[in-house]
Design goal:
Layout (H helix, E strand, L loop, with lengths): L2 E5 L1 H6 L20 H6 L4 E8 L4 E10 L11 E5 L18 H7 L3 E5 L9 E2 L14 H20 L4 E6 L1 H12 L7 E7 L11 H6 L6 H7 L4 E2 L4 H10 L7 H12 L11 H7 L4 E2 H13 L8 H9 L16 E5 L8 H10 L3 E5 L9 H4 L3 H14 L4
Parallel strand pairs: 4-5, 4-7, 7-8, 8-11, 11-12
Antiparallel strand pairs: 1-2, 2-3, 3-5, 3-6, 9-10
């Protein structure tokens, strides 16, 4: 079942049930402008929708339908943008309209849909479970690929009356694409092309400190859950956001601390890091995730394979009927796939990217022409438009219909 419900921002903020209550003083989204509200301030036309997945998760999608440069029209090609780990749809519109991909695509004549996967700050509802129920968090990016991305695609096709859409994924957004295209190959027929920015697929060569820290514990799921906070990494709440805005602002002695935190998780490239964006980034990130999403990446680092979640010997026998989890069959992804990668990306190593590229029968790869380009630069670098987006827009125009 795929269910889509458009609603106004006011109705969205007054929505009240046991799972998602905006009147709660500690709610992570209290007094936080939604991505739709952010883009409306710049004169863009935006709406918000709810989509229900086959397994009962209620996801928010934000849509940019038009701008002053490209008025609203029913003839625009739809494009779905899916964020990375611990991120949300706001990532595409945090930067100014000249630098944020959501704005750029809208100005270029696309119907832009910003997805939010289960568990992040905009997708914390379920038809049966609350976020306090551990069953809500029993997912990794496998379920995001199998259920969330297909639900978003189906709703967009229904709403726009199109046969195909374009797809853009950053990091985990690309991981989930490859899961979907492997496990639900019929969805390859619903996409014109997929643009994967820093695709986290093969992970054996990653130098990312957090993934490498978790990897030795990946086979001991219970101990790992206890070590990193049970089942959920929580999104930042009102207090953390307020503190972040103060200490990360320009011309404050504490801003270097924010810079260090950012580079710890996203890679170090001070020349491209826009420090002015730090207070705004801190309002939306971290956006929340299941601990299993991290565990699954750590498992890939250990195995060297792109494979399903490893439940251990007994769990795998019950789940898969084999001692090891099945590998995703990415060689059967025949649709056009574009891979964008950076030589300074700690999460997606060049050798792992080459391994992915060689297994895809219909892929092209593009190395960012700047040797220090790293993982978060794909969305927030000061020159991301000239280093990445201009090329991507040129390639995307070939599939524009």
């Amino acid at each position: 079942m795929i269910l889509g419900l458009p609603f106004t921002e006011y109705e969205h903020e007054s929505y009240n049930d046991s799972v998602f209550i905006f009147d709660d003083l500690d709610h992570p989204n209290r007094n936080l402008p939604t991505p739709s509200q952010r883009v409306q301030k710049f004169g863009y036309i935006a709406e918000t929708y709810e989509v229900v997945t086959e397994d009962g998760y209620i996801l928010n999608m934000h849509r940019i339908e038009g701008s002053k440069k490209s008025p609203k029209s029913n003839n625009k090609p739809p494009v779905l943008l899916v964020h990375g780990l611990m991120d949300c749809s706001a990532t595409w519109v945090i930067a100014c309209p000249e630098k944020g991909l959501g704005y750029i695509l809208a100005d270029q004549g696309y119907d832009v849909w910003l997805g939010n996967v289960r568990g992040n700050r905009y997708s914390r509802k379920h038809v049966k479970y609350s976020t306090k129920d551990k069953n809500f968090w029993m997912f990794s990016w496998h379920e995001i690929g199998v259920f969330d991305i297909p639900a978003m695609i189906d709703y967009i096709l229904k709403e726009t009356k199109r046969e195909k859409i374009l797809y853009v994924g950053h990091s985990q957004g690309s991981t989930s694409f490859f899961v979907m295209a492997s496990e639900r190959p019929e969805y390859q027929q619903k996409l014109t092309a997929a643009f994967n920015l820093a695709p986290a697929v093969f992970m054996s060569k990653t130098t990312h400190p957090f993934i490498r820290l978790l990897s030795p514990y990946a086979n001991n799921i219970k101990a790992l859950m206890n070590m990193i906070g049970k089942y959920e990494f929580k999104p930042s709440g009102p207090f953390i956001r307020k503190v972040s805005k103060i200490i990360c602002s320009d011309n404050t002695p504490t801003q270097p601390m924010c810079t260090n935190i950012m580079t710890l998780f996203g890679g170090r490239n001070e020349k491209e890091l826009n420090n002015t964006l730090l207070p705004e980034i801190g309002q939306y990130d971290p956006a929340g995730a299941s601990t299993r999403q991290f565990v699954h990446y750590a498992q890939l680092q250990n195995s060297g394979n792109f494979e399903q979640y490893n439940y251990g010997f007994l769990g795998n026998m019950r789940k898969y009927g084999s001692r090891n989890p099945p590998k995703y069959n990415i060689a059967n992804i025949k649709m056009p796939v574009y891979l964008y990668y950076g030589s300074n990306d700690e999460m997606v190593n060049v050798m792992d990217l080459e391994k992915l590229y060689k297994m895809l029968p219909n892929a092209q790869k593009f190395l960012i022409p700047y040797k220090w380009f790293t993982h978060i630069d794909f969305i927030w670098a000061m020159n991301v438009d000239t280093l990445l987006y201009n090329n991507m827009l040129n390639v995307m125009s070939r599939h524009k219909s």
